[in-house]
Amino acid sequence: MLCESATSTLQPDKLITGPGIKQLEKSAAETLFVAIEPWVSNFGKVNLLLAGMVGSNLGWREAPYLSCPLDARRIGCALLVFEERGHRVAIVPGVSCVNALGQPDVMRGEETQILGWMSQNPESLGGTRLLCLPGTHTKWVQLADGELQCFTTSLTGELFSILRQHSVLIPQQDINRVPDFHADSFRQGVRVAIEHRSDLLHAVFSTRVRGLIKKDEFFDAGSYLSGLLIGFDVQSALNTYQDSNGIVELIGAGDLSGKFAMAIEQMGYRSKISDGNQSVFAGFAAIAAGVQH
Amino acid sequence: MLCESATSTLQPDKLITGPGIKQLEKSAAETLFVAIEPWVSNFGKVNLLLAGMVGSNLGWREAPYLSCPLDARRIGCALLVFEERGHRVAIVPGVSCVNALGQPDVMRGEETQILGWMSQNPESLGGTRLLCLPGTHTKWVQLADGELQCFTTSLTGELFSILRQHSVLIPQQDINRVPDFHADSFRQGVRVAIEHRSDLLHAVFSTRVRGLIKKDEFFDAGSYLSGLLIGFDVQSALNTYQDSNGIVELIGAGDLSGKFAMAIEQMGYRSKISDGNQSVFAGFAAIAAGVQH
After folding, report:
1. Minimal Cα distance from A229: which residue of B?
2. The complex's ipTM?
3. How many beta-carbon pairs below 8 A join chains A and B?
4. pLDDT (average), residues A183-205
5. Do B198 and A235 touch (CB under 8 A)?
6. Over the stretch B91-113, which tens digit does the pLDDT of each residue have?
């Protein structure tokens, strides 16, 4: 949940964090007002602009999805606006589509990030772009002439996390330590993905067996698993979105984006990394600038 | 862990169960002798024939792997034999191979099941057979003229279980109930696997979104997820082992094997189900009959 007073200057150093949707102990509204108490003390009445799961059916109020294809600049015209405790609240709608696999797909929050990225990269309004927003639920997004054409959600991050914690793939002693990153093991995972792209379910057990039989001189199961999953993810996406001009625009945290960049490079493509937080702030700023809410 | 007195008649109704390798609170040996106390009381000294994780480096004593290709009847010639508390103990070796993806792979316990199935299906000693042993770690096994040629382990069962328990894919209220089975939702999952066989990571999020947007008149997320995973698993295996004569020999529990049979049929292949417990007993019997241990 991200929010900011639209009347103050938007700056990353004003970031306030609070519990996510699955960690709420009170209602979304109460949790929000606890988190932003410093702003309310400072500014009095504030205009709140919210995006993400706060607008889902598990959040505060449901902001209906806009459908693709969608002019991203239209997102700011479809805010769900209401008043709470004397403050004006606006929730950014999510976006839905039928994805490249013919399946229904949704995003909430990423649309604001994408809009922000577009406002920071105005040349992106012409031609096609393939965006990748790595995360728990990685989004692969096709832009064409400033329109959000279609996107696909991949379970990469969540799958890595639960396989690491709950499967037999990772050695017991590694489960609770902070994961290191070993580039060689990661690249081996990517290589297996490249060679066997239709076989994730069959390839992933090799994470366990490689450690067991000590085939490799040095082997880090976590980095290998990360390489496998990111490798399969990138491989699928590049196969699906073939008209990406050979470059992937990564929007997200630097360390995770860096791993996607490695896999993309290993497959002979290029990428460019943009900071995910900066994109969110730019997205909120773009919406706030366009709306008297 | 399965064991039986080789000197008594082997019968399924003499099954005794105890904790698996991950649930051990005492040493493997102590746990075993607690479990088989009724046999020891009844028979005195017993000959113990053990297979499975008891022979792994996490088990009691490590029985080295035999390598593929392997005449399955040789398994009984490579038992690890020792004495404990005056009883004779023999542990069946596991089997290793380089699988169809070029990755190292291992099995422990399934070799005994396969040997048992072969002894019950002597016609299998000629020609090629594709066996599938559905389970936590599903094994796909290629037999040729009675030789174990190669096998591949798939994470199907474990992945289903941890995605069901720990991911956002399954609605909260369904996580702790006993899963029902809804054939229509299952078949939808298989269909998506058939149509998009290289995209498991991208397809699996549809489990969540289909429930969210209520695209389907009736939708059971668990059955759909099961169909997706089993569908991807079967699809990969049929693609890998194309010389399977169009028939898959399923060896395992009836309900799970039945789901694999549904997916196999949906892909235009045939299957035959053999009871997994009967195969284990037949395997122990075959080994015990061939060895004075």
Report:
1. B201
2. 0.85
3. 148
4. 88
5. yes
6. 999 999 999 888 899 999 999 99
